[in-house]
Design goal:
This protein is α+β, with helices and mostly antiparallel strands and about 650 residues long. Helices cover about 20% and strands about 30% of the residues. The strands form 7 sheets. Strands 3, 4, 5, 6, 8, 9, 11, 12, 15, 16 and 26 form an 11-stranded antiparallel β-sheet that branches. Strands 27-25-24-23-19-18-17-28 form an 8-stranded parallel β-sheet. Strand 18 (about 255-260), helix 5 and strand 19 form a beta-alpha-beta unit. Helix 6 (about 355-370) runs parallel beside helix 8 (about 400-415) and helix 11 packs parallel to helix 12. The two termini are about 50 Å apart.
Length: about 650
């Protein structure tokens, strides 16, 4: 064993060479310098752990305890001669084979394969925030290595991994507030384990702890007014464009439908945030549109960006300024130009940005006063938890929990002021599960259309299913994204000519909807137009949309409130599926395709309390498909669903 291995603990990790730690010394600007056990002068085993000491007075103590049936570790240090900026703990080293993969907490859950290629070509993917859940797991042909952060105080932290000397090294990283502490105790414990199985078995280690936390216990769950929604429509633009196709879908399907309405605001998309009010068509017409939707029993929310401010737009001098933007470690503002046409930068506002949050809360109040039953606050769920190094903000630079707790406080104020209204945010985010009634998920369900040639699994659904309404995809019936008329006309695609995208990519639209069903998510269609329900060329796509809505509605007790079981192994054809990569900011010359080998039949296993498990099957292809699951076999008709009692 290498120096620094925790004696008496490796029996739980027979395949590991090291279970270690590092302290990263830094000042928030210069490169971080790391020390670990091999850099210490002495090592002493104690009854519950190990103490390392250095001649300059630095002492590090790591303790391990069996708590709730799993080994949990903790690190504390004292006598630090200078600022500690990072605590890397635990750091785990495992054998690397061609089959080694890593489950990371991005969206529903992302599986990273071909790790050496990723490490060589894309350093950006070698670290990330714990934004969906707080564990990572290495997987290799049924063997798994797991670590988590049992943190209920919302500290800024991330996972990190690298390839070194034929090994995979992965770790959790806690960011210290740069406040000059010479001693510190990690404010949570980290669990470690080995296991047999795949991603679902890793979830089972985390789930018991996660479901005891307040964000799950206080989630709306079965009291959620959205629990019966069986199809969402993500439409953008004027009322005359947005509303009629939603009304038609609701009438044709006969199930509860919800509308997520974008581009209702006076400003171009991704421009002049957060000044959304007044509506493009005026407050009176907007309120009348909301009444019309309510009369048709179509639940509606509209878009607001809850996290950013345009720092290049005309309104930037009229609303809270740049001094509240997060500052990165290199001293620059954290700002990104999402709008590819006007290149306006959107600055990420710090969790302590009181003026920005106050302005945004007023925008929300104006919408609720107009009769809106709910609001979608973009980006809060998937971007909070980053470090801010602005020296003028009311928090120490670097780590802490000001980012998430600041936005949690804002959401609480909105809910207290408007207790009968509903809130939504972007992507899977356990840290806001109790404050948001729904979350839109796009990266996992429509990853290929959004340019992610990556594998996703429904890990978040397996942990938190039934806590709130998860929905979302970027499924476009005609493959044509919406266009904001306030953008420059010169940047608009030429007419889509005679191109029939659905013929070129026959399985993409149906696959995106089918993923939502087998993952226990409420399905969503994007940019639905009246011609989709009227013109013959869209007949098949529209019929599958109706079938999807009705199937979800028929099985909503299972697919909203049921428990995800181990998916097991479904045997079916593996087929080549080609995807069009085209979003709202994709220029004509830049669109591309992605090809993947995927099962022709998707499946999930779900269980309602007191009932037998149910196998949910979805054939998204345009021909019948044979399948086999345990003792059950059959042929599933083209573009169809089936529920089979196990």
């Amino acid at each position: 064993m290498k120096k620094g291995v925790q004696k008496g603990f490796n029996h739980n990790f027979p395949e590991l060479e090291t279970l270690s730690w590092k302290l990263g010394f830094g000042n928030g600007s210069d490169p971080v310098k790391y020390i670990g056990p091999d850099d210490m002068c002495s090592q002493e085993s104690t009854a519950d752990g190990t103490v390392w000491k250095r001649n300059d007075g630095l002492t590090v103590k790591v303790t391990w305890q069996w708590i709730d049936g799993i080994c949990q570790g903790h690190l504390a240090f004292s006598g630090a001669p200078c600022q500690v900026e990072e605590i890397v703990f635990p750091e785990i080293q495992v054998p690397l084979t061609p089959d080694t993969s890593l489950l990371v907490p991005f969206s529903q859950g992302r599986i990273l394969r071909n790790l050496p290629d990723i490490a060589a070509n894309s350093a950006r993917l070698m670290e990330g925030r714990y934004r969906s859940f707080q564990f990572i797991a290495a997987l290799d042909k049924g063997q798994g290595w797991y670590t988590d952060c049992r943190d209920n105080t919302f500290q800024n932290k991330q996972y990190r991994w690298q390839i070194d000397d034929g090994k995979l090294i992965f770790a959790s990283v806690f960011f210290m507030p740069l406040a000059g502490q010479g001693e510190f105790s990690l404010p949570y414990r980290c669990a470690v384990a080995t296991f047999q199985g795949d991603w679902f078995e890793a979830v089972q280690i985390y789930q018991p702890w996660a479901r005891k936390q307040t964000w799950f216990q206080n989630a709306s769950g079965q009291q959620n007014p959205l629990k019966n929604i069986s199809m969402w429509v993500w439409n953008r633009g004027s009322a005359s464009t947005v509303i009629p196709p939603v009304e038609r879908l609701a009438a044709d399907s006969g199930v509860p439908v919800a509308l997520d309405w974008y581009w209702w605001h006076h400003n171009p998309y991704d421009t002049d945030y957060p000044g959304f009010w007044p509506p493009r068509e005026g407050a009176s017409k907007f309120s009348a549109s909301l009444r019309r939707l309510a009369e048709k029993q179509i639940w509606t929310m509209v878009y607001l960006n809850g996290r950013t401010q345009d720092i290049d737009g005309d309104s930037c001098q009229e609303i809270p300024g740049q001094e509240e933007i997060e500052r990165k470690r290199d001293g620059t503002d954290y700002a990104i130009a999402f709008n590819a046409y006007n290149q306006h930068r959107l600055g990420y506002m710090c969790g302590t940005a009181k003026r920005f949050q106050s302005f945004l809360e007023n925008q929300v109040s104006l919408l609720f006063q107009a009769g809106l039953p709910g609001v979608y606050l973009d980006m809060i769920g998937c971007t909070t938890g980053s470090n801010c190094y602005h020296p003028g903000h009311p928090h120490p630079p670097g780590g802490g929990n000001y980012s998430i707790t600041g936005y949690r406080a804002m959401l609480k104020r909105i809910r207290q002021a408007w207790p009968d209204r509903l809130l939504s945010t972007e992507d899977c985010a356990e840290q806001f599960l109790d404050l948001c009634d729904s979350m839109i998920v796009l990266f996992a369900t429509s990853s290929e259309r959004m340019g992610h040639d990556a594998e996703y699994v429904p890990a978040f659904s397996a942990i938190y299913h039934g806590a709130n309404a998860l929905f979302g995809s970027y499924a476009l019936p005609d493959f044509i994204p919406p266009w904001d008329e306030l953008w420059p006309a010169k940047d608009r695609w030429p007419a889509d000519k005679e191109e029939n995208w659905a013929e070129r990519f026959p399985n993409q639209f149906a696959l995106e909807l089918a993923r939502e069903i087998v993952w226990g998510m409420q399905p969503m269609v994007c940019n639905l137009k009246m011609q989709h329900s009227q013109e013959p060329q869209y007949k098949d796509a529209y019929q599958f949309l109706l079938d999807t809505a009705r199937f979800y509605h028929e099985h909503r007790e299972l697919l909203y409130a049921g428990e995800m079981m181990s998916p097991g192994c479904l045997h079916c054809d593996i087929i080549k599926v080609e995807f069009l990569v085209r979003g709202i900011f994709t220029r004509f010359q830049d669109y591309r395709t992605i090809t993947r080998q995927l099962p022709a039949v998707l499946h999930g296993v779900w269980k309602s309390p007191g009932k037998d498990p149910v196998l949910i099957l979805a054939n998204y292809t345009n021909q019948p498909r044979s399948w086999r699951f345990e003792k059950h076999t059959g042929v599933l008709p083209e573009r169809s669903y089936r529920a089979i009692q196990l």
